[in-house]
Amino acid sequence: MAEAAIITMICAHNGSMKFDDLRSIFGLNDEDMDSVLSRSACFAVAVMNGQKTVIARTEARLCRAQNCPGCPNLHLCKWHLLGSCRFAKGRRGCRFSHDLLSDQNEPVLTAHGLNTLDIKHLCILLLQSDSLLPAVCYSYNNGAGQYGRCPDAENCKRLHICEKYLRGSCDCTRAHDFYEPHPLQTLQDRGVPSELMPIMKDLYSNIEALKPRFRNKPSAQNPRRGPDAQNRRPSSGFRGQEAQRPPQSPIEKTEICMYFIKGSCKHGDSCYKEHSSAPYKWQVKEGSEWKALPDNEVIEKDYCDPKRIYSTGISQIHFDTMTQGPHSVRRLSTVSSVVQPAFILTTEWLWYWEDENGIWIPYATAEAGHSLSSISSAELEQKYQADSSAVVEFTAGSQTYSLSFQDMIQENKRYSTKKVVRRRPKFVSAADVRTIKTTKRTFNSLKALPDHWDKALTPETGYKRVSLPSTAREYIRISELFNLTMRGFSVLKIDRIQNRALWEVFQWQKDCMKKSSRGRDVSEKQLFHGTDRKHVDAISRNNFDWRICGTHGTAYGKGSYFARDAKYSHSYAQDCGARSMFVCRVLVGDYTTGHSDYLRPPSKDGGDTVFYDSCVNDLHDPSIFVVFEKHQIYPEYLIEYRDSSVCEPVTTRPAATVSSSSFSSTSHVQTSASTPPKSAKSECIIC
């Protein structure tokens, strides 16, 4: 079981983990950890970036045969493994299995010690162990020029990425970015979805580290040939081929080079991206040529103001049509900050809606007396980058809205009122550019963290409790949610829990659930969980786990229980002078009525592949939610509170079959003979 837990943990961290971090999580000393790792073929220990690292691996493989009479490999659809099978939606369905626990697959997984992995963890493991990803082109990594010595140039089916970059740091002129056109297209052609693109560097680095050491060293007899010579084309095919290659047509540059703006680009004039000293560049088309517009910074400042439709000056630019008189205008920029969060001077896009007074309101702000929306600019931008034609739902106050990216219209789903939406960049001046380029960054990997987190206080491992001032919007919003059903109690403090690992796994789970539901947004709620103070650290560090905390009442299934209303969870927050209650983000998804026998949500169709995401006490008016997968939970806030001296104790509790462990991590059983009266509903949907 220890090996299964370790391999699951490693796969949850993109296939590899630092040895010391892994040892610390499982509470083992160096000798015991080495002993566990050495007993299994599922682990390899290597030095990566100067640190001892544990990499997950397996000898299990996907069967490639179309009509296999029987073999010891997994019979599983590759597209389903990667996250989405287009054939499953067709009339005939997919002819390959989508069932991990089929009669063929379960024995194979058990034999390799992988029977406890879910499909997303198995995907990580097979991507870096089986040959599912395109191989790195070694010809590209030898020789000079844009394509090295690769005879296929841009038509090559192998990956044009720098090998040295995969093994560590490198400042050569070869590709160091999986989002460059050739690597991106090659991976997409092999079925790699956009959701997996951010971890490609990790997976390919793991693949490099798993290779036999002699393959990392060039041959002493012929050092120019490089590693893995058997995968090369005959050397005679290289000679003179670069000279015979037809001249390449000029590539239209539609994006600003992040390497140039950071400092320097070794590709020089041959770079396929625009070189600019600013992260934006305005151009006008004269004939067949795009020419830079004067007053670049002035135009940009006008464009960043959402209320402006035209630029200032004599020759005005119409921002809605992107024209200047009869001429077309375009704006080149760096990539969106949500796509490449580790780079400096990426473009941060802000989203606004126009109210009835013509005021442009940024999302997730409570300006001009409007309710705070449940979705922020960064979250909208992430959804927009994933699918620019999507329709997104969110809430603000008691209302639910839909936002169409194609129409840029926000509609109230109850009253059908419509508002105009605009997406504009955050303004960055030339002075800002100089400051950003000369400021040392504290962290290099802050991807996927919420905008409102204090990045400087976010540790690489573990968690940090950040105390919120009582004047902060977060504090006010959470305390109002708490006080909806907890009148007569005093909030002592509210802490934000900043745990990088839990947040990234939570976002990953959200993406997986969205893909499983064919692109529909996953229902996410803010729910309460009362607990004993002694469990606060464990939950903040490792998330909820009912198997560790124990269960003493399983009315709707054996899982972690959460409440819509704080007063229900209050019954299970132990009084030690001050009580503790978590406010959690919970991916409830598609739910159904629970049952005490459930170890997981039931099947939707009676089969063994499509399941509900959670269970509830009442399908039509749910107030209790049961979650069986801890990755569907993020413990976002911790409220410490106490009974006010003038208030009477709250006596309302859930129905008799629900015990203290349902909303807490305590061990006593509390029952009630009568059903409590319904409380006012908390506005807790995030969307």
TrEMBL record:
Domain PARP catalytic, residue spans: 449-662
Region (Disordered): 214-249
Record domain WWE: where: 337-423
All residue ranges annotated as the C3H1-type domain in the record: 76-101, 131-163, 251-278
Location of the protein in the cell: Cytoplasm; Nucleus
Family matches, as Gene3D superfamilies: 3.30.720.50, 3.90.228.10, Zinc finger, CCCH-type (4.10.1000.10)
GO MF annotation: an example: NAD+-protein mono-ADP-ribosyltransferase activity
Signal peptide: none
Highest taxon of source: Eukaryota
GO CC annotation, single: cytoplasm
Zinc finger C3H1-type: from-to: 76-101, 131-163, 251-278
Keywords: Cytoplasm, Metal-binding, Nucleus, Phosphoprotein, Repeat, Zinc, Zinc-finger
Keyword field contains ATP-binding: no
SMART domains noted in UniProt: ZnF_C3H1 (SM00356)
Keyword RNA-binding part of the UniProt annotation: no
InterPro entries for the chain: ARTD-AVP, Poly(ADP-ribose)pol_cat_dom, WWE_dom, WWE_dom_sf, Zfn-CCCH_PARP12, Znf_CCCH
Family recorded in the similarity comment: Belongs to the ARTD/PARP family.
Protein name: Poly [ADP-ribose] polymerase 12-like
Organism placement in taxonomy: Eukaryota, Metazoa, Chordata, Craniata, Vertebrata
